[in-house]
Amino acid sequence: MPDNIKELLHHQCVAYVQKRVQEAENAFKDAVQAANDDTKSSAGDKYETGREMMQQEKDRMTKQANEANKLMVALNHIGTKSNSPVAENGSLVITDQAKFYLSISAGNIVVDGESYIAVSPASPIGLKLKGLKAGDAFELNGKRYKVAQVW
To answer: Within 10 A of 124 (CB to CB), how many other CB atoms are there?
Structure first.
């Protein structure tokens, strides 16, 4: 495992959030363009229905972009240099079942051929991980995990 693994994981999480923001912005632009195109070619009730659907799509994309921005704010508050023996935000928790990066819910991340799972501290597994140290164990969904190491 590289010495800068937490920095690499953090970078992957930032890229994940940036991609989500970009996708939401692109979808928003597409919805605006579709609404503008629909305005030029529609009349009557069909126009109002199409316009309402486009507005709902724009609202949905705005919400997604806002959620992604909240994730970025959360990432900006996570340090990658601390090595607390107790699992906290920014910790890498190695268990006998998986390797968890306590940060945001970004799912599976592969760094140097190794798989890590980015989990939010507020998620069920994140709540179980917080405060644990090497040698501790916990159970989730009928599966037992033993903590081997906390970085």
So the answer is: 11
